[in-house]
Amino acid sequence: MPNEKPKPKNDDELPEEVFRVARLGQTERPFTGKYVNEKAMGIYLCAVCGHELFSSETKFDSNTGWPSFTEPADPAKIKLETDNSSGMKRTAVSCQNCGAHLGHVFDDGPQDRGGKRYCINSVCLELKESGKGPTDDT
User: Fold this and answer.
1) Burial of 101 (0-12, 13-18, 19+ CB in 10 A)
2) Cα 110 from chain centroid?
3) Contact at 8 Å (CB) between 59 and 20?
4) pLDDT tens across 63-112, in order?
5) Is residue 44 a part of any domain in this protein?
């Protein structure tokens, strides 16, 4: 059914790094993720449940070491929460469907595209390519 929510993978089915980031709220090392320099067009899905999260059309090169997006594909598909861990006040981003921790959102993104930078761990994403050409600004 088209309106049915994707079923999340069980925690014991997740690769160790996906579990560590998505379930324990940790982060992957900068510049190590498979999607940092990805230029293919498509939609980025939650690696835990397959929920559509971000479009390649909003991806940009932030030079931070993680894939960055100016906005989610659908704001209702992500959850934002205050994160005071690591001695910082940040806004954590998680998947609304399965609760997987994805990364954080900051107010230092491109001003001409809304000013947000959704800094997302590659390990929490799976790219479903659309078959269109590469993006221009990633």
Assistant:
1) buried
2) 17
3) no
4) 999 999 999 999 999 999 999 987 889 999 999 999 999 999 999 999 99
5) yes
Q: How many domains does the chain have?
A: 1
Residue 66: give its domain's CATH number.
Answer: 2.170.150.20
Is 20 within the bounds of a domain? yes
User: Residue 5: inside a domain, yes or no?
Assistant: no
CA distance 24 to 19: 7
- Rounded CA-CA distance 53/25 in Å is 18
Which tokens belong to 12? 């014991």
What is the phi/psi pair of residue 77, to 5°? -95, 0
Residue 63 lies in a domain: yes
Number of Cα atoms under 13 Å in the Cβ half of residue 56: 22
- The set of catalytic residues is 119
Going by the DSSP 8-state scheme, the letter that residue 29 receives in this structure is P
How high is the mean pLDDT of the chain? Answer: 92
Q: Phi/psi of residue 72, each to 5°?
A: -75, 160
Q: What angle do CA 59, 65, 70 make, to 5 degrees?
A: 25
Q: Are 25 and 96 in contact (CB under 8 A)?
A: no
Which domain does 117 fall in, by range?
Answer: 11-126
